[in-house]
Structure formats: structure tokens, C-alpha cells
Write a structure and sequence with these properties.
The complex is a heterodimer of chains A (230) and B (267). Chain A has helices spanning 2-7, 21-31, 60-64, 72-81, 122-128, 188-193, 213-229; strands at residues 14-17, 38-41, 45-46, 68-69, 87-90, 94-95, 101-102, 105-107, 112-115, 131-135, 158-162, 166-170, 177-182, 200-207. Chain A has 230 residues and is α/β, with parallel strands linked by helices. In chain B, strand 3, helix 3 (54-62) and strand 4 form a beta-alpha-beta unit. Classes of the chains: A alpha/beta (230), B alpha/beta (267).
Chain lengths: 230, 267
């Protein structure tokens, strides 16, 4: 899943990165096929080139390796709202067929079953960037017909959703997320079972290339370096 | 003037029950020592304001200091939930916690408006989200008078007290900080009273690339608190204690374990 997400990031793009899987995938891309990708973190670091994976979006090495460090109001106003970010790389707890995201609550907002962290930077990132990449595990409780809370709504740009089972893109006509690629070892039936709505499958369904030795090696090293640093 | 005080007297003078208090620091320079002093002094009914509540607000909330939280992301970065925050929202423990929820862009703009002396800020934000409805008291549509574009207005945040940590200050109370500067300047300038804790007080502030200075006359009080941002970090002084953040998940999960930890380490 991480490798498939990294591959979506093309070289020389400017990418606003969420922490966790998005950060892992974006750094994997930077260290393999997209060395000139510019990683922007919401703490205000532009062009960070961390040697190990950061645990938070503001670890010291993000600032030390950055091209520029700017205040938080500036990163959101001048750089994101100003239209200078190409790609937003996001995670979420739930996604619906239109690609709207929930990262706020499971259950009712006033009396939540699970209070999640909340939208953070995502509402404006999703709305402002030219392409939204979402990385999320596929399961009936994450791929839902109806969100418990609408935290982020993608703007007019393109969208791709990477899961542990495959890749989904909006159907050109209905805009409903449609399975366009399946990962090696996963099946279309498995993808259907793990989707909370009637999943549509592209007529031109492709299979994801297996991860290369190089991709796996870099990913392993990134993860080991994070563990060694904690 | 940024009067040099001991941390306990600064908190006693500046922070009162029922105050709105913003302890800021965007992953960097989080004022943990000041937060712990607030816990020790047993403040109650605080309106806590912070973009990323983090562990310090988990501790304040779990110790019953807060009546309301204004925020945009309440998690343990890279680890998961803030269990004390969740317990307060989900089960009203130890006391009910009212919440006012925004996005980062909204909060950052609210601080900037506060620092600018404006009543509200304008942004292109919250489009299509349910935050628009849930926080409708503090998010309102507004039409640009020049272009007719539909935008969003959010009210300025003017806390009673703004508290941040910084690398150092001189004996006059001029403050210098660098690295990720987050919203440190905005919250000090937006607040009616401000407290800056510093790693060290020095005779002279040497210029540093990328550093900002808060002149002493823009700050109410300065208190020396070495290691006062731990387990977050102070750039060029010490690193983020990622192990502590991971360990907090276990410490904070159960009420009794959390209380014991606070009694052993903070009270």
C-alpha cells in the first residue's frame, strides 16, 4: 500500500504531507523515483528532506533539512490558499463513495463513540490542492456509504485512493470511487467485501506491479531508522 | 515589559480560574513546564485554546483544569488518540468538556486576526464540511465586497493569557526563538497577558539566522524553565522525546494509571 501510494507522486511536484502513512509514502517517493519532489509539512517546513521518518509533523530534522521554515499562518495562507501546492497526501478514518473524508468522530458528534483527533489541516488541504491522494485501509467500517462526519471535501481537482487492496479513482461520469487497480495477492471479491457500498469495478482493471527490491529496501530502512530513533 | 519572574509566581499572577488560556507551540517549543505549574496550582474552568492539544492538554484536561477546549487537531502525533481528551469528550471525566472545533487554517487565521487587532479573519475554508454547521457560532459565510466571492469569516482569538516556550531571553526580557516558529508570535501578540518560558536567560542575544525576537515590551512575563518544553523539543537544545510520546499512550489510557503518573511526576 505504501509503495503504491509513493508511486502516485511524480517528480518535481509540491506535496503537502500528513503524518503517518502519507509521510512514509511521500518520503519513499522522494528517496526512489521522485528525488525533486518538494515535501511541505503543516508545521511550516518547505522542502524537508528527512533522513529518517518523522514521528510528528514538526520534528526538528524537518526544519533542519528544509529549504525554508515559515510561520503556520503563512504556510496555510500564502502557500496552500495561495495555490502553490500541487498534491495533498491525506489519511482518514472513513471515506465515502464521493471521496469525502471523516477524521473527526465515529458515531454522533455530540455523543461520539470514538472521538478522533479532528480535521487539522485536511479541510483546506483537500479543497485547495490540484490532486488529492488518500491512503486508507479498505474495510467495511472505513469505506462507508455515509460518513459519521464530513471533515474534508476534496475540491475540483483529481483524486486517487490507495488502499491495502488496490487503487480507486472517481468514475469520469458519476464521480463515484471505482476500483481501477488491484494489488498482487488481493482479489476483486475481497475489495467488494471490504467496501461498505456496492463497489464498481473499472472495465479496464489493472494489476499493480509488485514492489521492486529497491522500493522494499528503502521502505524497510526508513521504518528501521524511525524505530532506532525512538 | 517582560518582567523576569519565577515560573510559579508568573503563573500565579497571570493565570486565574475561568481564564481563556492558549499554550502554543506547533510540535516545537511546547510550554510543558508552564502547563505543569498550572496543574500544580489547581486552576479550574479554564478555556483552553490550542491548535494541536497534544500531551500537555491531555494532562490539563485529565486533571480537571479545563471547562472548554478550542482546537483543530486533538491527537498524539504519530501515535494515536489523546485518551484523557477522549475520556472527557466521550464520558465527561473528570468533568464535562465543551468543545469548539476548527481547522488549522481557521485557527491560524483567528490568531493572526487577534494579533492584528481585527475582529475577524477571512479565508477560503471549511467548504462543504460539517464543521461549518457544528461550529456555526464561530464560522460564518461572508461575501467579498469587491469580487462577490463567497468566503468564510472566523472571529479573532484574544486569550486572557498566551503562554509559549522559547530558546532564550536576555535580562531585559527580550525573547529570541528559532526553528519551527509556528504561531508563537501570533499568540503572544493576540493575548491580553503573556508568559514566555525560556531555556536560559543570557546576558546578550546573539543574532541567529531565521530567529525572531519578541521585544520585551510586547511580553508580560518571562520565566526561566530549563528543559521546559520536554517531551517536545527546543531546537539546538534538545530533541523531541519520541519515546515519551509513544509511552504516553499506555500511561494515559487508564484513569488510575494517569493519576498516579501525574502525582509522581507533576504534583
Amino acid at each position: 500500500m505504501t509503495v503504491a501510494a509513493a508511486r502516485e507522486l511524480t517528480d518535481r511536484t509540491v506535496c503537502f504531507v500528513g503524518i503517518g502513512l502519507p509521510s512514509t509514502a511521500a518520503n519513499l517517493a522522494r528517496l526512489t523515483h521522485a528525488p525533486r519532489t518538494v515535501l511541505v509539512y503543516e508545521s511550516g517546513t518547505i522542502g524537508s528532506k528527512p533522513a529518517t521518518l518523522p514521528l510528528s509533523i514538526g520534528d526538528g530534522q524537518l526544519a533542519e533539512t528544509a529549504d525554508a521554515v515559515v510561520p503556520v499562518p503563512e504556510i496555510f495562507n500564502y502557500w496552500l490558499q495561495g495555490g502553490r501546492i500541487d498534491v495533498g497526501f491525506l489519511g482518514a478514518a472513513q471515506i465515502d463513495p464521493k471521496g469525502n473524508l471523516n477524521s473527526t468522530v465515529i458515531g454522533d458528534y455530540e455523543t461520539p463513540k470514538v472521538r478522533l483527533p479532528g480535521g487539522g489541516g485536511a479541510p483546506e488541504i483537500a479543497a485547495m490542492v490540484r490532486e488529492v491522494i488518500v491512503i486508507i485501509r479498505q474495510a467495511p467500517r472505513t469505506f462507508v456509504e455515509r460518513l459519521d462526519f464530513r471533515s474534508s471535501v476534496p475540491g475540483g481537482g483529481s483524486m486517487v485512493v490507495i488502499t491495502d487492496l488496490g487503487v480507486l479513482r472517481p468514475d469520469p461520469e458519476s464521480a463515484e470511487l471505482t476500483l481501477t487497480r488491484i494489488h498482487p495477492g488481493a482479489s476483486v471479491d475481497e475489495a467488494r467485501e471490504n467496501t461498505g457500498w456496492k463497489l464498481r469495478v473499472s472495465a479496464d482493471l489493472e494489476e499493480t506491479e509488485p514492489p521492486s527490491d529497491e522500493e522494499l529496501r528503502v521502505l524497510r530502512e526508513l521504518k528501521q531508522a524511525l524505530e532506532a530513533a525512538v | 515589559m517582560g518582567e523576569l519572574l519565577q515560573l510559579d509566581e508568573a503563573v500565579r499572577d497571570l493565570v486565574h480560574d475561568g481564564d481563556s488560556v492558549a499554550l502554543e507551540g506547533f510540535t516545537h517549543l511546547i510550554p510543558f513546564a508552564a502547563g505543569h505549574e498550572i496543574v500544580r496550582q489547581g486552576r479550574r474552568d479554564l478555556i483552553l485554546i490550542r491548535m494541536t492539544p497534544d500531551l500537555i492538554y491531555d494532562q490539563l484536561i485529565g486533571m480537571g483544569c479545563a471547562g472548554k477546549l478550542v482546537f483543530s487537531w486533538g491527537g498524539n502525533p504519530g501515535v494515536g488518540s489523546l485518551h484523557r481528551f477522549r475520556d472527557a469528550v466521550e464520558h465527561d471525566w473528570p468533568v464535562p468538556l465543551e468543545i469548539e472545533e476548527h481547522s488549522h487554517a481557521g485557527m491560524a487565521n483567528r490568531y493572526a486576526a487577534g494579533a492584528s487587532g481585527l475582529p475577524f479573519a477571512v479565508l477560503r475554508g471549511y467548504a462543504g464540511t460539517e464543521l461549518m454547521e457544528r461550529s456555526s457560532d464561530t464560522i460564518a459565510p461572508i461575501t467579498c465586497p469587491f469580487t462577490g466571492e463567497e468566503l468564510v469569516a472566523v472571529p479573532a482569538i484574544r486569550p486572557d493569557v498566551g503562554i509559549v516556550h522559547a530558546q532564550r531571553a536576555d535580562r531585559e526580557g527580550n525573547v529570541q526563538l528559532w526553528g519551527i516558529i509556528g504561531v508563537q508570535k501570533e499568540i503572544v501578540l493576540a493575548s491580553r497577558r503573556s508568559l514566555v518560558t525560556v531555556e536560559e536567560v543570557v546576558d546578550e542575544l546573539e543574532p541567529r539566522p531565521g530567529a525572531i525576537v519578541l521585544p520585551t515590551w510586547s511580553v508580560t512575563a518571562v520565566a526561566e524553565a530549563p528543559h521546559g518544553a520536554h517531551p517536545s523539543y527546543a531546537h539546538d537544545y534538545y530533541d523531541r522525546d519520541n519515546g515519551f510520546y509513544r509511552g504516553w499512550d499506555e500511561v494515559s489510557r487508564e484513569r488510575e494509571v494517569f493519576r498516579e503518573w501525574m502525582e509522581g511526576h507533576v504534583l
